[in-house]
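[job 4471] stage=fold_predict status=RUNNING
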Amino acid sequence: MKQLRCNDLRPGDVLLRMATSSFTHKLIQLGQRLAGQPNAFLAHAAVALDTQFAIEAQKAGVTANHLAMKNKACGYYVYRCTNPSLGRGAATAAKMFLDIAQTGGKMKYDALGAGKSVLGQGGQAKSAAEMDALLDTVLKGRNHDFFCSQFVVYVYQLAAYQSGMPAKSIFNVSDAKVSPSVLASLLLNNPSFQEAGYMMPNER
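[job 4471] inference complete, writing structure tokens
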């Protein structure tokens, strides 16, 4: 696997973080293992905005974190959209959610939703009407809680939808039923993505 550094990243790259020693990550790992999901060592997901920042749903809400500073000690598996335009669209969608979160709608990490994502796989991708309804809710400043992997799947489905493609053409699942380990499996078997490499901890 190719070792990547920050300068190798592209907008829209999906970053799957290896679990840390935090209590939350330990719970996510345990839940994924008990559910029999592969890749249980992965406990977080984010979208690369550019070569420096990752946008992610965390306890504080949707935030942007510098990969060479706050997240320097984290290791990431990196998957890249084979359609650069769609990747940039996902990064733009993530940035839009970040901007909304910073103006009041925090969109905090949904711990309950994260737990449910481990228990239920699959489900139907949102319809066009459901995509519009959720986007309208967020744009009006009403809060919507996201957990990390749900956020990644939703911004990609939204970017696809905004490009005139059905949301299910990029991820044919319910965003609310995707844990980090399931997201890894979806990326591995998805012709719209390819494995770009791995970012070593403390090597940026």
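[job 4471] summary: The two ends are 16 Å apart (CA to CA).
[job 4471] exit 0
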